[in-house]
Amino acid sequence: MKYSLAIFIGMSNTSNKPLSRLLPFLSALLLATMSYAQCPANGDITFTSQADIDAFGSNYPSCTTITGNVTIQENTAGDITNFNGLHNIQTIDGSLYIDQNSALDNMSGLNNLQTVTGDFYIFENNNLTDLTGLGSLSSVQGDYFYIGKNDHISTLSGLNSLTTIDAHFYVGHNDNLQNLSGVDNLTTANGAVTIEYNQELDDLSGLNNLQTIGDNLLIGDNYYLATISQLSNLSSVDGYLWLGPNQNLPTFNGLENLNTVGAGIWIGRNNSLTDMSALSGITSLGDYLMIDENNSLQNLNGLHNISSVSGLLWIGNNNSLTDISFTALTSVNGDLLISDNNSLENLNGLSNLSSINGNLHLTGNYALNNIAGIAQVDHTTINNLSIYYNDNLSSCSVNSVCNYLELPAPSTDIHDNLTNCNSDSEISTFCHCNISATTSNILCNDNGTPSNPDDDIFYFDINVTGNLTGANWTADDPNNSSGNYGVDVNLGTYPISGGDLSFTVTDADDNACSTSVNVSAPMTCSNQCSISATVSNILCNDNGTPSDASDDIFNFDLNVTGSNTGAGWTADDPNTSSGNYDVDVNLGTYSISGGDLSFTVTDADDNACSTNVNVSAP
After folding, report:
1. 17-36 and 2-12 are packed helices; what angle lies between their axes, rounded to 10 degrees?
2. Across the strands, what pairs with 435?
3. pLDDT tens profile 397-419
4. Maximum distance among all alpha carbons in the chain?
5. In the chain, N or C: fewer CB atoms in 10 Å?
6. Are 338 and 318 in contact (CB under 8 A)?
7. What is the pTM of this model?
């Protein structure tokens, strides 16, 4: 190249004007050729040996950008050990594949790599322990940043310059990965994030600063994952949220700040999951909600603030589930499927659901015996009604079901439940208002007079339930009582002396819908008071004048006993005495000259309970 330049310069010193006019063009061509030679021609490059990598550093010492895809995959096991020959590369304008290099233990040599405009795959490098050497990498712009099947990688150390990832960030099938330390500065993932099949992964350390995900988040099949608390700064997932299967994850603590899920949620096959309260910030979903095969989950607390689901709502195969508390849920814009939840007895947590715009399926819920929780669903929003294999369900005649069955051509599949809920016709038979009442806790009250049974009163609890009822009920008992359905209402009081009580409870909106109630009055709880008195120790006192009998006085002890007595007794003796039962009380003094003493002792709480006392003066 130097020789060619000298010829052109020499020619330019002659008086040959045509050649001199070519000099600028030739000089430009020469400079372009020299610059072009700094990097290989555009196109894909494959490195299959350490020698290839080393030769690149020798042949292109000034090359900083490779235009085209780069593949590093050894032909001979153990050959490639470092990337030192690529130490000047800053940009790969294409994809980078680092694949199946058995002796490679880190990314040393790629220290200046900043940008990969395509995909970046780190795949099946079985001796790789971390990603040291990628400390300058700040941008992966393709579809995937894939870190997978690297059997000995334990952390992601080396990715400390990544604050934003545009690609789908995939970390999976790394059997020795303990945590995600190394991406600690990552705040934004514009693509999806997938963490799956990392069998030794304990936690998500490294994602502590992640705030937003522009696509899906999937965390699944990480057998030993015990906490995701490191996601405490995550506020939004614009795509789907998939949590499961994670066999040892007991809670979703760490997701308390998550308030936006743009698509749907699937929570499945988390056998140790008992608590979803961390999801309480989510209020609506852009697609489905599926809760499937979480065998330890007893309730859905944490989903109670979701008011709408824009797709399928499926609750299935959760063997311990007893409570589906969707207290804020008003609409499902898709199918509602509740199936094979063996411990679920009722649907009370759906009591605010008004529309579904899809199929309604209640199937295979062994313990289900009450579906009143879906009574208020608008029947015109039900496309198909399936109720079968619910072994304890005998009453299906709730408003939503009855109204749907009255349509000209309802689409149904109803069978294999208990009698009265085995077919359209069985259900329709009971599709009118009917109520029943149970009484409990019938109790006596002594009305403040424990020794007088004549004024004893009683009261009791009544619980009125029914199908196709109005807002509440009324009763024609002596107190004209009323109450709400399905709750204990205390009625009373009524005199026991009036005997047994019979009355009728009637639906507030349908006078033809009523039931009779009979209550047996209890035994009285007061008993007749009776008392007796014993006098002893009648003693004379000379009153200080031993020679004058006219002023002698006397005193005595009185012991009053009895049954069903009040707190004490009083006497109408000259001293208006009083005392307690079952103890000696000294009364006196009284004048002996007055003769024998007679008075009455009366119970302090019952004037009808008394006894006469006669005392002979000494």
Report:
1. 160
2. 466
3. 999 999 999 999 999 999 999 99
4. 179
5. N
6. no
7. 0.71
